[in-house]
Specification:
The protein is α/β, with parallel strands linked by helices. It has helices spanning about 1-20, 45-55, 70-75, 145-150, 160-170, 180-185, 190, 220-235, 240-245, and strands spanning about 25-30, 35, 45, 60-65, 85, 95-100, 105-115, 130-135, 155, 175-180, 200, 205-215. Strand 2 (about 35) and strand 3 form a beta hairpin. Helix 2 crosses helix 8.
Length: about 250
């Protein structure tokens, strides 16, 4: 009888754990090597592996959908999806996002120019007034850039790839990008033939932490807090280090 009682309690515990397992839908956009569409059409990349691993450790499963960044933000703002990554912090987005407190990925932002350009950058974004800067629609490039955006000559494009193509063809003068995304984007076959025309300016605009954000309308603050707890533990693991080594060049050149 005692043995049956133990089996019954164990079964109840297992059912309770199973009942707590949930499925969530996250959104993002193609931002290699952090997020991009694989050969099978599914999202893959550094941030994808990190987010998948953390949700798995919490006992949950996720689907990741890729959209243009503006549309991805709208799905969260309207409460149609559960979470979005990787996203920079802004007071505007804080109105509809519960940001993780833990940094998902830290991104170092640089300006890219044509090799024959005489443009230089001393760290003062405001000094670039009058220079044509190519940005991707709805993408945030960090506090320093965004606080000066209204003073700059901005030329928006739908994608990061198109920005670099416009730069190579002389249609814009500068393109901001984090180092790893620029390296991955310029190594793609469609852009590889233009890569030799471009160079990275040596001084970064800044290093910007990026996060995962949960839809406030869905009241997922408890999930956000659990995600933070698991991410904090995961970021100290060898598994996390292996993900970074898999997707990133060993060092900045």
């Amino acid at each position: 009888m005692k043995k049956l009682h133990c089996i019954f309690l164990l079964t109840l515990c297992m059912l309770s754990l199973h009942a707590r397992a949930e499925h969530y839908t996250c959104v993002s956009f193609e931002y290699p090597p952090l997020i991009h569409k694989g050969i099978d059409g599914k999202a893959e990349g550094e941030a994808v592996d990190i987010v998948n691993s953390v949700f798995k450790k919490m006992g949950h499963t996720i689907t990741i959908e890729l959209y243009p960044w503006g549309r991805a933000l709208l799905t969260i703002q309207h409460g149609d999806r559960d979470c979005i990554f990787t996203v920079y912090h802004s007071s505007e987005r804080e109105q509809f996002l519960d940001y993780s407190k833990e940094t998902l990925v830290s991104q170092i932002i640089y300006f890219y120019v044509r090799r024959d350009s005489n443009i230089s950058f001393n760290g003062d974004v405001g000094a670039l007034n009058g220079v044509r800067i190519g940005t991707a629609s709805h993408v945030n490039y960090g506090p320093k850039f965004e606080s000066t955006r209204h003073k700059l000559d901005i030329d928006e494009a739908p994608t990061i790839e198109l920005n670099f193509l416009k730069l190579a063809l002389g249609r814009v003068d500068l393109v901001p990008s984090n180092f790893y995304t620029a390296s991955a984007t310029l190594s793609q076959s469609a852009l590889a033939r233009f890569a030799d025309r471009l160079a990275r300016l040596p001084i970064p605009t800044e290093e910007v932490p990026s996060f995962i954000g949960f839809a406030k309308s869905k009241k997922l603050t408890e999930l956000r807090d659990r995600f933070d707890e698991e991410l904090r533990k995961f970021s100290a693991s060898d598994e996390y280090k292996n993900i970074l080594d898999k997707y990133r060049p060993p060092a900045l050149p």
